[in-house]
């Protein structure tokens, strides 16, 4: 098993468009295995590479007993039919919001060896293919909601335990201009972790992000401190999560 930690809402990597895969090598096959193992471990319907912090256009899926992956996907819509129903995301754990999607999708791409593939999806599979391809474009499903639904969704996200408790800012010399700024810092890349806070130009604040599985405390943004549980989020939330 090569289960990896999943990046959560607020991590800039989830807002960054992923790059096309150019080399179908052993690294890519390892990534595909990580995506599949992590998706199945979390009970998700799909998982895109940016959710593991990798900016490549690859996702895995597991819908209605059809399991697979797709590299460099391009979507086509054969008709105008739509569906409206609950959608979730492993990067926004435990929360579901009704989302309008196209009912029928044809996804064209490649497998891990570079062979052309086509998946014809309807219903839940079509929803999954659209959701995962959105991830590769740096788009989260809450951005597909109309303004009223999105407002309600953001309220629930801000109230979610994982959103408020996963990252605890212990030292914040200045009130951040935007509420989540220091949380974003905590979720950023190792390179950015070393940088100074653009608000106050001070050194990184010590934060707690105990969803990380690393047992070793590290200094700076994203320091892990006395993790009470090596896995996060705890059981029931994982089981309920999709995508
Ligand atoms: Zn997702």
TrEMBL record:
Keywords of this protein's UniProt record, alphabetized? Hydrolase, Iron, Metal-binding, Protein biosynthesis
List, separated by semicolons, the cofactors it needs. Answer: Fe(2+)
MF (Gene Ontology)? metal ion binding; peptide deformylase activity
User: What are the catalytic residues?
Assistant: 132
Q: Where does Fe cation bind?
A: 89, 131, 135
Q: Which Gene3D superfamilies match?
A: Peptide deformylase (3.90.45.10)
**Classification via CDD domains:** Pep_deformylase
Query: Which EC number(s) are documented for this chain?
Result: 3.5.1.88
Question: Which Pfam families does the UniProt record give?
Answer: Pep_deformylase (PF01327)
HAMAP family assigned to the protein according to its UniProt record, in alphabetical order: Pep_deformylase
Protein name per the record:
Peptide deformylase
User: What species is this protein from?
Assistant: Stackebrandtia endophytica
Question: What lineage, starting at the top, does this entry show?
Answer: Bacteria, Bacillati, Actinomycetota, Actinomycetes, Glycomycetales
